[in-house]
């Protein structure tokens, strides 16, 4: 799929039934919605993007919590489709912080003149398919409606924040925030008694930052995660030209790796090398920037229990070396899952934070938070007083953003009902019974270094739509067989992966959202295999899509 498609003169798509307001409505103006708008507009489609926020950026608009930054190399994360965009933007750090990423996405929106087709402050409440008209009616929570042929969800896998189910949350008299709904106005921690609840990738970044200025910081940790050093650094102006010259190589590498990151696994087993060699290899990885220790490790550390145990022991030793108080160190070492089987938070002096006299770690597993009070919170053992409580308690991941919208397909069937037993999709982009609906970063698609997967999906969807327009096709759905086939592929791809034996957002578990059972939430196979499968479908004239 080349970008020459952008030159396509296009034309209006055929209409059946009463008038359409738009050819396409895209829900969400994050990384995927922005590129899908650009791509489809270039093909001549009349497109409207509906965005709940007041600006572009999606994840990078909402998650403006202190310390938010990339865990993927900035230059591997940016849009790759436009050489002019790549040439015009300089990343200041190898792992850029949220304000810079938000600026970057605004720069893209300006450069591609995207805003004229985006309606901000417009939260979509419902999207109903109308059989006779072969059209979607997308309704905002204000009641405004838009009728269109195609509806594309660009609503993100981590965009429905969840608050803990603890009584009394409304009673707290101090300031409180969820990290995923952080205010735009600056928030000061100076001189304040701050609590952070949650120690996922978000909590870890928040804690590092808050600990710098808070009078006291109390961290409520339920289950610890295995974290590894980020090793961030500035990119000097002198380095920029050489970095930009490497863009083709960088994106080629991302196309070749399992999860689109720059890091490639070592072909050896952790068990076939000598103890000295293994230790030296892990030492190197631990001291390198980024996800190398997770994505660039021995080939078997995520599938072989012994290899994973050895790696976990190595990282546990590091934690014990870095945290002075042995009891605190033990609390910070996960005991219920191995290294890398949940998303690895990357950190900058996270463990050292717990050596500071103003920081305390509370084990919220053995002494859960029982109640939020006007003055703070209570565990079974102790009452705490705080000026501020920060909830870094995560998201109703992958399907949560869909559940928040009343989506109804053919015959009025709801998507929620269709996915009652877990999501079922074709290639993670289509759902049987929901014609002319495409999903970007929906369930069962390749995730990993997400913009790389997004660009692929956006281009694939644009190609299907162009195929339809060129043939006067007004209806596209997938078949039960195709869905069953893809669901089985997703299941098989996850077989043997230790990460699928662990509760996390990746396996669909979020107790705050009432989701306690593991489901087949994401495609956990290789992105290379995913794209090959999608390419084969396209090359066969979209054999598993039923057109009319
Ligand atoms: P998360 O990984 O789901 O973590 C939520 C945390 O809140 C967990 O530690 C959880 O504990 C805790 N929690 C929830 N309810 C609680 C309660 N009632 N009492 C005590 N603790 C409670 O969510 P996240 O940290 O927001 O991260 C989600 C994903 O976003 C990441 O995995 C990553 O993919 C992405 N992310 C990316 C970046 C980046 O690229 N730089 C940064 C941040 C996040 P339990 O584990 O016990 O449930």
Q: What's this, in brief?
A:
The protein is an alpha/beta fold and 548 residues long. It has helices at residues 31-42, 59-62, 74-77, 83-88, 98-111, 201-210, 240-245, 247-256, 275-286, 292-295, 305-322, 326-332, 350-353, 400-403, 415-418, 450-470, 480-493, 527-539, and strands at residues 22-27, 47-50, 118-119, 124-130, 135-140, 145-153, 175-178, 193-197, 216-221, 228-229, 346-347, 359-363, 369-372, 376-379, 383-385, 388-391, 406-408, 437-439, 476-478, 545-547. Residues 1-17 have low confidence and may be disordered.
Note down, in words, how this protein is organized.
- Helix 1 runs parallel beside helix 16 (450-470) and helix 16 packs parallel to helix 18 (527-539).
- The chain is globular, with a radius of gyration of 24 Å.
- It has two domains: 4-56 and 114-160 and 397-493 and 519-547, FAD/NAD(P)-binding domain (3-Layer(bba) Sandwich), CATH 3.50.50; 169-391, no CATH class.
- The longest helix has 21 residues, at 450-470.
- The protein is an alpha/beta fold and 548 residues long.
- It has helices at residues 31-42, 59-62, 74-77, 83-88, 98-111, 201-210, 240-245, 247-256, 275-286, 292-295, 305-322, 326-332, 350-353, 400-403, 415-418, 450-470, 480-493, 527-539; strands at 22-27, 47-50, 118-119, 124-130, 135-140, 145-153, 175-178, 193-197, 216-221, 228-229, 346-347, 359-363, 369-372, 376-379, 383-385, 388-391, 406-408, 437-439, 476-478, 545-547.
- Bound molecules: NADP nicotinamide-adenine-dinucleotide phosphate.
- Residues 69-71, 158, 164, 166, 197-203, 205, 220, 222-223, 343, 364, 369, 392-395, 505, 512 line the site of NADP nicotinamide-adenine-dinucleotide phosphate.
- The site of NADP nicotinamide-adenine-dinucleotide phosphate has 26 residues, from helix 6.
